[in-house]
């Protein structure tokens, strides 16, 4: 019996020792801090076939030392909000290389903490390259560090890039074919009467406005213009459209300022705030640069103080009920 107690005590001691070792001497881990910056973040270039240009980039490392590989990949429009989708493989006629004597594209190099590297990117358009737009991203991607024995290290990669919007034209002519695809309000209630749709809002609601431009041309466009609001009592407000690139053969939702549409759950061009009563007209006029056709579109909405009316009705009902109760004669007591 005594031997069993001793064996149990030894087992408990060994178990406790293992727990202490696991708690106070865990396996060493390493988490790399990555913070990269690149400038310029965007380059727009119009170039003829047979020509080349050189751009100087500055890549900064504000985190731990990293191994980096720089390369170029094409991209296309990812959605109508300005996001892009980078393609997995290189294509297109444009040629790229680094003019740095000690660096090459797709070859890793080392960048110390709080250090920077100048990257001289040469862009060349061969003779005979088809006219049109070509979109690329100049990427710098961290490479996983070597694994040391006894150390667990994250193998995640980090990327930073600068977009290149390249227009190839031999004649200098640009194909600008934009149109307004959608200009409307996102109404809670829509009523169609005699082929006309009426948009209804509660007076205290915010009015979301959506403006989407479709680019059917071979070159990017940059719409500019404004949205105007006119009320039935003479109220007027103007909102400037923020110039944004709409890539060739794609569409994009524009933004106007000042606007809360950037932060709304569903992105909108403009988010009108206030207390609206009656019929309101919205109009927009946009163009794509000097000597381009100006495009127009209109929409409207009706705002009614439904909540206020309900509050008034309820308040009047309560007041009438109280008056009736007060004026109601008391019944004679039993004799």
What features would you highlight for this structure?
335 residues, elongated, Immunoglobulin-like, six-stranded mixed beta sheet, mainly beta, 2 domains
Describe it:
The protein is mainly beta. It folds into two domains: 31-145 and 156-168, Immunoglobulins (Immunoglobulin-like); 178-310, Immunoglobulin-like. It contains two helices and 23 strands. The protein has helices at 2-24, 306-327; strands at 29-30, 36-39, 42-47, 52-61, 66-77, 84-86, 95-98, 109-111, 115-124, 132-143, 152-153, 159-168, 178-185, 189-193, 196-202, 207-215, 224-231, 236-241, 250-253, 256-257, 270-272, 278-287, 295-304. The longest helix is centred in the first third of the chain and has 23 residues, at 2-24. The radius of gyration is 33 Å and the shape is elongated. 20% of the residues are buried. The model is unreliable at 18-29 (pLDDT under 50).
In CATH, the architecture of the largest domain is: Sandwich
Q: Based on CA inertia axes, which overall geometry fits? A: elongated
Q: What share of residues are in beta strands? A: 35-45%
The sequence of SSEs as H and E is HEEEEEEEEEEEEEEEEEEEEEEEH
Quickly count the helices: 2
Calculate Rg over CA atoms.
Answer: 33 Å
What class would the helix/strand composition place it in?
Answer: mainly beta
How do the strands line up in the largest sheet? 14-15-23-22-17-18-20
Query: Do you know the CATH topology of the largest domain?
Result: Immunoglobulin-like
Low-confidence stretches: 18-29
Share of helix, binned? 10-25%
Give the termini separation: 97 Å
Domain count: 2
CATH homologous superfamily grouping of the largest domain: Immunoglobulins
The largest pleated sheet is described as: 7 strands, mixed
Tally of DSSP β-strands: 23
At the first level of CATH, what is the class of the largest domain?
A: Mainly Beta
Mean pLDDT over all positions: 84
